[in-house]
Write a structure and sequence with these properties.
single chain, alpha+beta, 2 domains, two-stranded antiparallel ribbon, 5 helices, disordered N terminus
Length: 208
């Protein structure tokens, strides 16, 4: 009887340890990219029904990759600023690419057809891609909309140089005193390291 109890306790310890290891591993996977990591390419459908990849941009020096969506009030508040970033930096080699990471079953407003309408109504000057199957945003580790990743094209691949928010005032662009993304891109264009490489993304949680 004593032997059975010992075996039962041993089995429980093994099961708990296996559970902990599994979830620790899963947590590591969900952390996504860190500064200095190399981001993999993707092939996602744009609102014009064409597939878009980073490799399509042969002359790009890098990218301003923005995870955003239709329904989130934070995303809406930043739309004009995202357009302005594209207009400012696309010609300098850092175009904007926007990706909607949300599951449209959770918010119909984030459906692909609704994305087409939003892009047209707002006059998006950049690709607006849908993360079908939600496979890309976990690789990056995005948790909010909007959530920005600045990538720099290097001989080794697409280097992650900045992760976080666009600026420090989502409510009013004119009241923002720290312009994280534009500062980071300008530093990269000057051949410098990004001085503030990570900030806290403020927005809606990504909907699975």
């Amino acid at each position: 009887m004593k032997t059975l109890k010992i075996l039962a306790v041993f089995a429980t310890v093994i099961a708990v340890s296996a559970f902990a290891i599994h979830h620790k591993t899963e947590a590591v996977i969900l952390e996504g990219y860190e500064i200095g990591d190399t981001a993999t390419d993707f092939s996602l459908k744009n609102v014009d029904d064409q597939l878009v990849s980073l490799s399509d941009y042969k002359q790009a020096k890098g990218f301003i990759l923005v995870f955003t969506c239709n329904h989130c009030p934070y995303s809406k508040a930043y739309e004009d600023r995202i357009i302005a970033l594209d207009q400012e930096f696309k010609g300098l080699g850092y175009p904007v690419i926007a990706i909607n990471p949300n599951n449209p079953d959770s918010y119909s407003e984030d459906s692909f057809e609704a994305m087409k309408v939003r892009a047209k109504d707002k006059g998006f000057t950049f690709p607006y891609l849908i993360d079908e199957g939600q496979k890309i945003y976990p690789q990056y580790g995005a948790t909010k909309t909007p959530h920005v990743y600045i990538l720099q094209n290097t001989t080794a691949g697409h280097k992650v140089c900045y992760i976080g928010a666009i600026d420090n005032n989502y409510k009013n662009a004119t009241l923002a005193t720290a312009h994280y993304v534009s500062n980071a891109v300008n530093e990269l264009l000057e051949g410098k390291e990004v001085s503030l490489a990570v900030t806290k993304a403020i927005g809606c949680s990504i909907k699975d």
